[in-house]
Design a protein that fits this description.
Helix content: 40-55%
Order of helices and strands: EHEHEHEHEHEHHEHEHHEHHEHHHH
Shape: globular
Oligomer: single chain
Length: 402
């Protein structure tokens, strides 16, 4: 059966949410790779670093694992319409699974605050897209009121069945690691359903006796969209929504729906919450890309945050760490193009970077060459480039900075 090939539904004994498993809607999601990240480990200061890449799901993000679960419930309950508010990935996943099931779907997106590559997916899968002149939180608030008046099934992460599907990567991870629990799991923080779901997965495995302990789960947010970080560092622990601003559009959320669940997971597992700047995100994304792995900007906050956790002594060199990469690198290609052309960061952002960070950016950027279509011109340019690259390799081999 198709469900046996799904990385979500093969754990169906732990997902008692549908009566007829043969009717579930699946695109064979899950079963995503766990990559070794030796270069990023060296840069970060740990000996052992892996990345669980949820961007390798059918629609290119971790949202598929939750969407197969929640949309299957919608089908079983007889809904013909489904809807979500989205910064991109949720809309792509919902539209794909709705198309597969033959349901109609509506996507509410914030005006001008979305990666267009993601929206193109929703369009391609047949969604009705409604662009509202507000932010993500405004879209979700409006949609929450509308579903009370129309027979539309809400598929944002407030839907509990989304979190049931999104807990399964924790189980996959343990299989891939031969049930050896890492000391740390580092997760991006947007609407905070993902960290909540993964924490639930690990805690359930511990309760069942499949593992003896759970990893410390830490959540990383962008500085411009950091309500959980502010709560975490506030003596009164009061959640105050923020006006979210970050180029990492997938986590551009100022009033996260699942913050209480996420905060409990952080506290129960002994993790932390950290924030990272736009410059730190851009650098981390390029470093992940240099491993040949790649991810969307929101995923890169994990590596940027891990650097801070190591520097603060919260992660030790010898401890095992897994980064959760939530989206594929092609989710936001314009971000990558702008970075490598030197057009992403503002002068103010570059000004506050250290000399070392500027050198790292310079080494990582790979802008395209623009040459005359003449053999001599191309040959000379390639010879110069290769000589420079060889010199850098020689310096690196001898332990000198490139």
């Amino acid at each position: 059966m198709a469900v046996d090939q799904s990385g979500v539904w093969r754990f169906r004994e732990l997902l008692p949410i549908v009566q007829d498993v043969e009717r579930v809607v699946t695109l064979r999601e899950g079963n995503t790779p766990l990559y070794e990240m030796p270069r990023c480990a060296e840069l970060t200061g740990v000996d052992w670093l892996l990345a669980k890449h949820q961007g390798m799901n059918p629609s290119g993000s971790f949202k598929d694992t939750g969407m197969t679960a929640a949309l299957s419930v919608a089908v079983e309950r007889g809904f013909q319409w489904v809807a979500c508010a989205s910064t991109g990935n949720t809309s792509a996943a919902m539209a794909a699974y709705a198309a597969r099931a033959g349901l109609r779907c509506i996507v509410f997106i914030p005006d001008g605050k979305i990666a267009w590559g993601k929206l193109s997916q929703a369009m391609d899968y047949g969604a009705l897209t409604v662009q509202l002149k507000t932010d993500f939180d405004g879209c979700l608030n409006l949609l929450t009121r509308l579903v009370r008046q129309f027979p539309i099934y809400l598929l944002n992460s407030v839907n509990p069945y989304r979190l049931e599907g999104q807990k399964t990567p924790a189980m996959e991870m343990m299989e891939q690691m031969e049930w050896q629990v890492p000391e740390h799991l580092v997760v991006p923080g947007g609407n905070l359903g993902n960290s909540s779901a993964l924490g639930k997965g690990f805690l359930e495995m511990k309760h069942l006796g499949l593992i003896q302990r759970v990893p410390k789960i830490s959540v990383i947010q962008a500085e411009g969209a950091n309500p959980l970080y502010r709560w975490f560092t506030d003596e009164n622990q009061e959640m105050k929504p923020v006006q979210a601003e970050t180029r990492a559009t997938a986590i551009r959320i100022g009033n996260p729906a699942s913050w209480k669940k996420a905060s409990r997971v952080i506290e129960e597992t002994g993790g932390w919450c950290e924030q990272v700047s736009e410059q730190e995100i851009a650098l981390a994304k390029a470093e992940i890309g240099a491993e040949g792995v790649g991810c969307e900007p929101a995923s890169a906050v994990t590596l940027a945050g891990l650097k801070k956790l190591v520097a603060a002594g919260r992660v030790k060199r010898e401890q095992r760490v897994v980064l959760l990469l939530t989206g594929h690198t092609l989710k936001d290609p314009q971000y990558t193009i702008d970075y490598h052309r030197g057009e992403l960061l503002t002068a103010a952002e570059i000004a506050v970077a250290t000399v070392s960070e500027r050198a790292q950016h310079e080494a990582l950027r790979k802008p395209p060459m623009v040459l005359e279509a003449e053999e001599a011109v191309v040959l000379k340019a390639l010879e110069t480039h290769m000589a420079t690259a060889n010199a850098e390799d020689t310096n690196t081999t001898h332990g000198s900075p490139a």
